[in-house]
Design brief:
Blueprint lengths: L9 E10 L6 E9 L2 E9 L4 H15 L5 E6 L2 H8 L2 H7 L13 H13 L1 E6 L7 H16 L3 E3 L1
Parallel strand pairs: 1-4, 4-5
Antiparallel strand pairs: 1-2, 2-3, 3-6
Length: 157
């Protein structure tokens, strides 16, 4: 009988993105929680959109994991969550990366990277209302906003 696989570590990830629509300056942030310990990071990008920053936060969080994990991603982005939970990504791929209105899917590069990363980890998606007092969401919102305003990022190991 083959040995039982080692159970995966369960990590909770909170993500957020921020973008100033007039300038195109954006920030992203994530907070990883594992066994009472936390690690966060944030970053800045020029000429971007809020949706790109939301996706970037999830990509960077999953890239930060050093082994396959069981991951719950908590986001205030319906765009990000529903792409996975409501079958949007499956439809987009089936339609040659076109939306139901036959337009090219925006942010395809980030979606493809997320698909690759979610193939490594066991990922579930949760949504929380933004700016509604959810502590971890408020923290990543603040980190993303600071990264955008200061045009720099940070890593808290």
């Amino acid at each position: 009988m083959p040995p039982m696989p080692k159970p995966r570590k369960h990590v909770t990830v909170h993500t957020d993105g921020s973008c100033e629509t007039q300038t195109g300056d954006g920030g992203w942030a994530y907070l990883l929680e594992y066994k009472g310990k936390e690690r966060s990071a944030s970053g800045f990008e020029e000429n971007t959109t809020n949706n790109r920053m939301e996706l970037t936060a999830a990509v960077r969080a999953l890239e930060a994991l050093t082994e396959p994990c069981s991951v719950e991603i908590v986001t205030d982005s319906q765009y990000l969550k529903k792409a996975f939970t409501d079958g949007w990504l499956v439809s987009w791929q089936r339609n040659g990366w076109r939306t139901t209105s036959r337009q090219s899917v925006k942010n395809r590069d980030l979606w493809e990277r997320l698909l690759e990363l979610t193939g490594t980890h066991e990922v579930t998606w949760s949504w929380t209302r933004g700016h509604a007092g959810h502590d971890a969401n408020e923290r990543v919102d603040g980190l993303a906003l600071r990264a955008r305003r200061e045009r720099s990022g940070s890593v808290d190991a």
